[in-house]
Amino acid sequence: MKLFILCFALTLGLNSALADIQVFPINAYHDPSITTLIFEDPYTGFLFKNSNRTIGNVAISIPLLSWGDGNDQLFLNTGVECSLRTEGMTFYSETLDLRVGMNWVHPFNSHWLTSVGLEHMSGHLVDDALEKQLEPLNMGIDSVPLRLVYHHENGIRAGLHLAVETGRSDPVSRYVFGGIFAEYHFYTDTRSAKTPTDGPYIGTNIYYAENLNIGLSTTSEIGYEYHRMHFLLGYHSGADTRLKQEMFLNSTAYFWYSGLRYEI
Questions:
Q1: Where are the domains of the chain?
Q2: Which of 218, 83, 211 minimizes the C-alpha distance to 139?
Q3: How far is CA 60 from CA 167, 243, 263, in A?
Q4: Out of 14-23, 101-110, 154-163, least confident range
Q5: Which end of the chain is more exposed for a tag (fewer CB within 10 A), N or C?
């Protein structure tokens, strides 16, 4: 009889837990842990560089599950980053970097949230790349990305972003890479977990990239956010944004950029 009561109680608890889970939730919010200051984050758009190159991104973040009154969410992220070289009026494609992963976002309270997940990224050369010696080389990194983000009503938003490597195809990658970012939004209510707020902002990201031989990198920008669309002007110094060139050639890059990125 006691065993029956125990099994019945466990069944009720499981049913209650499952009832709280929503698959492809209708009232899902965007991923509050991402930032335009990290080029790899899942935004779709383009950035024009002053070095006659363009970064084009097609990426999406899909809320798969939600639970805990919709506050906890599991996101699927996938994206392609393309590097284009400009000569006159002609664009030449150089690289395609692919990323796929998922992350669980958990808000502790109205100011703090954390994100943890799994990610695979790979670097690929395409026909118009100048560094032909990189074509036969394989470039892939598996990692566990971790973030801790703070946001406040006074417009301050800051975060720690790290990735712990779990598998790699290149020996010079760091076992832990990442850094810190900070933003100031010129409006009274910075983007919350559920509702992004329109307005101008400034920010900077200081980080160590995947390559062990490259020191600190920085990305700074001013932007305007409108309905998840970000209009940007920024400057980057440090690791090359093209994964194969960064990892195999220890390539660095210094450039101004402008463009837009959109959260799908």
A1: 2-262
A2: 211
A3: 24, 20, 7
A4: 14-23
A5: N
